[in-house]
Amino acid sequence: MSSSRVRAAVAATVGTLILAGCSTESTEDERPTDTALKATSPIEWNLPADQSYHRTATYPVYLNRAAEEPAETETVAEISTVTPDGNTLIYTDAAAKRIGFLDIGDPAKPVGVGTLSLAELGHQDDQPTSVAAVGEFVLVVVDTTGGDFAHPSGRLDVVSTADRTRVHSIDLAGQPDSIAISPDGAFAAIAMENQRDEEFTPTDKSEGDLPQPPTGFIQLIGLAGTPNTWTPRRVDFDVDAARAAGLDTPEDLEPEYVSVNSRGQVAVTLQENNGIAVIDGHSGQVQKIFSAGSESVDGIDTKEDDVIDQTGSITDTPREPDAIGWIGDDHLATANEGDWKGGTRGWTIFDAATGDVVWDAGTSFEQLAVRTGLHIESRAEAKGPEPEGLAITELGGTPVALIASERSNFVAVYDVSDPKAPKFRQILPTTPGPEGILAIPSRNLLAISSEADDAEARVRASVTLYGHGETFAGTGKPSFPSIVSGDLDGAPIGWGALGALSADPRNDDRLYTATDLAYGPARVLGVDVAQEPALIDTELPITKDGKPVTLDIEGLSARPDGGFVLAVEGEDGPGNQLVYVDAAGKIEKRVPLPKDIAAQLGSQGLEGVAVHGDVVWVALQRELKTDPKGVARLGRYTPDGDRWEWFGYQLETTTAADDWIGLSEITVHNGELLVLERDKLNGPDARVKALYRVAIPDGAGVTASTQPPRVLPKTLVRNLLPDLRATNGYVQEKVEGVAVAGNQNLYVVTDNDGLEDANGETVLFNLGPVAEASTV
């Protein structure tokens, strides 16, 4: 750990040590539950079913490909629209240079019904940037620039949705971005961005800076009559008016996103110039240009140091909004993603007539990510959760704003009936990179399309469907979030990457868990499972000589007499060890694995630990190099005599390329070992996620790596794949923690890997009484 990371870790945890009421010294009878100040949640997470969104399906769009196309081909869903009957969703796929079609007639079972390549409409390098359905047509906005930023070009293709043939094409005289249709269907507005080249350096400027002519503009297209009669009307912005409004580089405006209200007014963001314009869509007159302004935000994580340190701030930072939407006819909401100069990690509501800010999210949007385990540490120094997408709809007559976090993979839902005081309603998980938010009011549906696709990690771009109201209640169980953190001193407890789970020996309705190396320094988190969602309400830093330490905690077990045993995985075999800590979190001793065992381990080592009477059981994730393929080891450690014994565990098999099977957790219940086993696949590919029972063996085990271990018989307790699929989300790879609480319920938790190579969602399953949990 570098000196800078140590300083950050100390700063992040000194306050926690005080708040938790724990010192680095403890008496024998102290317990974390006795001394810790418990956090409380400022949010009511449980809306009535008839007022909630319920996830109905997650459709990875790589499934909607031609039979001859390799599954690993990059394919995304960025912006979507829907046919007037609400049954066919159409999305842009810029990565594969096509648009895709989904049958969502049954929102629980979306069906891919093919794609239309832009190579068939023009050139193989053409890219769709947006789509909008109008009557029997879909309007496809196409960027034909091909990387020649100084000479931008694009067109609008009018495609029949019935037979997917182009019936008309309109030259847009520049590079387009988004399209919006007026509520009365009279016209379309297109943001003509003419985007900058991020690798070009203007004279006396920085790389990627403005100005980089030509400037952008707006195209308005009347939709009366047949498509072959539609013609564009160009709307340019007055440079002097833009300069008077305080825009950064008014000679080079780059319109980003458009929205139209019931009066036919077009709102457009000028992101790189930190501006907003309002245009009369009927006359083409620019009515107002104003600056989006700046914001200072305190209490956010601004350092990429593997620590969720919410003491940072940004000062007078330009909002640089991306998506925009009308709340009624008088207010505008913006998602303040930022570009190269700004981004304020939230969203804002403006008075459209004056340009005045009437409300700003401040730190609250990022805090949503922290509370739900969706904080992405690798973006802390950049733009944090990066709010980018936005849509305004109505639910039961109530205006609602939906804001997408591009990096933390969620959409937040707000009641904006009072634009000066939005009320948070719900948070909806997505697959990585949510970009398009499409409300379908006629069917009480919501479609969220995501633009990030990682075939190597098998985390694929998807369209996620939600239904609103009682009709959809009961779908997507457990609902998200199933576990959240409370606030201490106004800030939520930071968490994520939960790779361990343990019962609390002193409280039937409590568990302990821990974050792994994704978020340091090491802490044990206390969880109240009597609440719904379960609440992380305490955090106990692990310390050595009074200073916080960083450990890759993969397993933990609470000791009946206080304190914990941690299973710590090393970067290599010798780094694996059991770590004993007292009730105040102070490290008492470290127990390394036997040298010959550690020498035969690769990068996967200790994964689970369970205290059982006078002994400790451990699970090694993979086979030793000296053991038969497919046989992992379970270890029994007896502190009295410092003795290790080893037994074999027969893993399931896999035929998938680049896959392996391993162990994730071990616990003891009713004198038997419960062992969690999984493959490394997720999404539709997942095959092995299961809990097995192993009788505690009589007799001794082997003591050396060269001795073949006795393989213990195992019995399937529960196949967890149906549980993972029941959420209607993207099936998680890392089922990592299992515990039987004192209330005798069986709990399983997934590890979101800190959102790296994962969709980021954490699911805590309460599978009910362990005696009834078997699916055999």
Automatic annotation (TrEMBL):
Under the heading PROSITE patterns, the entry gives: PROKAR_LIPOPROTEIN (PS51257)
- Which InterPro entries does the entry link to? Mesenchyme-surface_protein (IPR052956), Phytase-like_dom (IPR027372)
- List residues of the Phytase-like domain: 494-753
Q: Where are the transmembrane segments?
A: none
Extract the PANTHER family matched here.
Answer: MESENCHYME-SPECIFIC CELL SURFACE GLYCOPROTEIN
Q: What is this protein called?
A: Esterase-like activity of phytase family protein
